[in-house]
Amino acid sequence: MIRLGCGECINSLAVIPVLPANFFGDNEPDSKSICRQGDNYLRVVLTGGAGFLGSHLCDLLIAKGWDVLCIDNLITGSEANVAHLLPNPKFRFVKQDVSSGIQVDGAVEGVMHFASPASPPDYLKYPIETLKVGSYGTHNALELARAKKARFLLASTSECYGDPDVSPQPETYWGHVNSVGPRSVYDEAKRYAEAVTMAYHRHHGVDTHIVRIFNTYGPRMRLNDGRALPNFLYQALAGEPITVYGDGKQTRSFCYVSDLIEGIYRLFESNEHLPVNIGNPHEITILEFAERVRALVGAKTPIVFRELPQDDPKQRCPDITKARRILNWEPKVNLEDGLQRTYEFFRKQVASTGPTR
Ligand code: UDP
Fold it and tell me: What's the pLDDT tens digit per position in 84-128?
């Protein structure tokens, strides 16, 4: 069991590129928000807070008035993603593996569990770590929420639907998952995480929430995380061939990160305990997506076709009827604007690091 004391904070880190002024779009955080109890600000423990999504969630939570204790072992997260928050007294970062146990002194009003490798190449590289953080890590985060009487939110995934034979996917669809395929280390870890979360809700009465996150993109994605968008943008910027896996007819639906984070926060504040899809229902083939990125960058490089990874889902599109109804949420940033903002970020990244990743 690990006890998190003050001496473990990281204090000085590199600075990341500044986000565009209109980054939050219509979802600009409300600085007059409500996270106070008496004279004290309320505190969230956010696991995986130095990752792509986690770091954007840190920003929103701080803007809403929460104190944030961010825990991350940095296997796929990056110190640079939270460097700009370190001078803020309402923010603390601790480097720690939550699969080994979590103990936090003092009051905690919210626990959000985002720790996990999440891109297919990352979870194939770290299969055991992925299974452990989905199982032991989720269990430890739930125990913390139970002990502190805090509300809990699990970052789950559209991968729970596997290679779906229903489209778009509503939350009521049980999925089509290969339990022994290479992707199962992530899919089944998250399905277990959902099961243990519901057990803590039903058996222990913990106030739990489950978000099923669909493909998301935006600033702070890792250039080398192996997902479609970082690969395509990097390849177009570096003048390399753009690699489309299979025939490119498989579909995905890409949600800009600020939309996703706003939807997650609304779910955290809601009374809903069953899973809720958060994603953008605008579906596009991967080949068309590659062509859009190539046109955006103005690259002349060819699109080349490579072998489709095993069990790669043929289609993915969220049914967001439930999120619209209970959270009054839907995405606002269209693909053109989102890609432009993401491109600006990657262009600066490549300019500062050179054409390597
Ligand atoms: N993909 C691709 N080229 C790449 C990386 C990914 O064609 O360089 C495909 C991948 O096979 C999948 C889709 O793009 O069909 C989205 O992959 P990603 O890794 O972004 O996320 P996934 O939705 O599979 O979790």
Answer: 999 999 999 999 999 999 989 999 999 999 999 999 999 999 999
* Span from the CA of 300 to the centroid of ligand 1 (angstroms): 21
Verify whether ligand 1 is closer than 6 Å to residue 253 (CB atom): no
- pLDDT digit string, tens, across residues 289-343: 999 999 999 999 999 999 999 999 999 999 999 999 999 999 999 999 999 999 9
Domain residue extents for the chain: 3-28+42-216+256-279+313-333
Distance from C-alpha of 191 to C-alpha of 158, rounded to nearest angstrom: 10
CA-wise closest residue to 354 among 185, 239, 226, 214: 239
User: Of the residues 158, 187, 227, 289, which should be mutated to test ligand 1's pocket, given the most ligand atoms within 8 Å of the CB?
Assistant: 227
Q: Is the CB of residue 312 below 6 angstroms from any atom belonging to ligand 1?
A: yes
Give the number of the atom of ligand 1 that is nearest the alpha carbon of residue 245: 7
Candidate from 245, 288, 304 with most ligand 1 atoms within 8 A of CB, to mutate: 245
Q: In the structure encoding, which two tokens stand for residue 267, read together?
A: 């779910």
Three-state secondary structure call for residue 328: coil
Catalytic annotation, pick one of 186, 217, 234, 256: 186
pTM, rounded to two decimals: 0.91
Is residue 245 among the annotated active site residues? no
Q: What are phi and psi of 250, to 5 degrees?
A: -65, 150
pLDDT digit string, tens, across residues 218-276: 999 999 999 999 999 999 999 999 999 999 999 999 999 999 999 999 999 999 999 99
SS3 173: coil
Residue 277, helix vs strand vs coil: strand
Residues near 23 by Cβ (< 8 Å), separated by ≥ 6? 219, 258, 341
Task: Kindly report the CATH number that applies to the domain delimited by 3-28+42-216+256-279+313-333.
Answer: 3.40.50.720
Dist. CA 73–CA 189, nearest whole Å: 18
Q: Tell which atom from ligand 1 comes closest to the C-alpha of 286.
A: 14
